[in-house]
Amino acid sequence: MTREPGRDGGDGARVLVVDDDPTVAEVVSGYLDRAGYVVDRAEDGPAALARAAAHWPDLVVLDLMLPGMDGLEVCRRMRGRGQVPVIMLTARGDEDDRILGLEVGADDYVTKPFSPRELVLRVESVLRRTRPAATARPLHEAGLSVDPAARRATKNGTGLALTVREFDLLAFFLRNPGRAYGREELMREVWGWDFGDLSTVTVHVRRLRGKVEDDPARPRLIQTVWGVGYRFDPAGTPGNEEG
């Protein structure tokens, strides 16, 4: 399911804010509204799915800990209906929760308590990367093709269902074959982050391998360079998935 940003009124993209805490939802919605976005709100999972069905959002700000149907299940069901970027909110600082959110397809996460201004910047960053880059040329390596303008990726002609972060990472690797990049470099060069949890990179690499490698347990294309990070090798030999 797709839609054009802001087609239902206003100049901004449509953002769905899902949080059962009315104070958090109000603050987040207020900041996004002032930043020029069209904001919908939902207090639980079923309401979020109904809102999304009525007005498909350009991005979802989604609380992990919702009553009844949690944010992970909401994210899974939305992914089943169509591609939409998701920023997960979590009150927990536990790394497993953040990684689990990324594993089910969240494009980013923010840990409560958070700065509403930082969240708006994250929303802007994700949306900027989902919008077509008209001047970017298609990329082709090792049976993989990426069209940045159409935000489309294929493997041997078959479409790949990639999240925003996975798409950006694959495009970066195809632009820079043969060079090893550290996790901090990838965070900065691919996503423009000067800070953050390096495990985020590890999770996105693992997920991307699962979609582009013939055998993710012995990756040929996205290889681990021990003590450094990762390297995209179009003619690589099988390696070890760990790391």
From TrEMBL:
It comes from the Bacteria. SMART domains: REC (SM00448), Trans_reg_C (SM00862). PROSITE patterns: OMPR_PHOB, RESPONSE_REGULATORY. Residues 14-127 form the Response regulatory domain. The keyword Ion transport does not apply. GO terms for biological process: regulation of DNA-templated transcription. Keywords: DNA-binding, Phosphoprotein, Transcription, Transcription regulation, Two-component regulatory system. One of its GO terms (cellular component) is cytosol. Residues 136-234 bind DNA. InterPro entries: CheY-like_superfamily, OmpR/PhoB-type_DNA-bd, Sig_transdc_resp-reg_receiver, WalR-like, WH-like_DNA-bd_sf. The keyword Transcription regulation applies. Residues 136-234 form the OmpR/PhoB-type domain. The modification 4-aspartylphosphate is found at D63. Pfam families: Response_reg, Trans_reg_C. GO terms for molecular function: phosphorelay response regulator activity; transcription cis-regulatory region binding. PANTHER family: DNA-BINDING DUAL TRANSCRIPTIONAL REGULATOR OMPR, REGULATOR OF RPOS. This is Response regulator transcription factor. It comes from Streptomyces sporangiiformans.
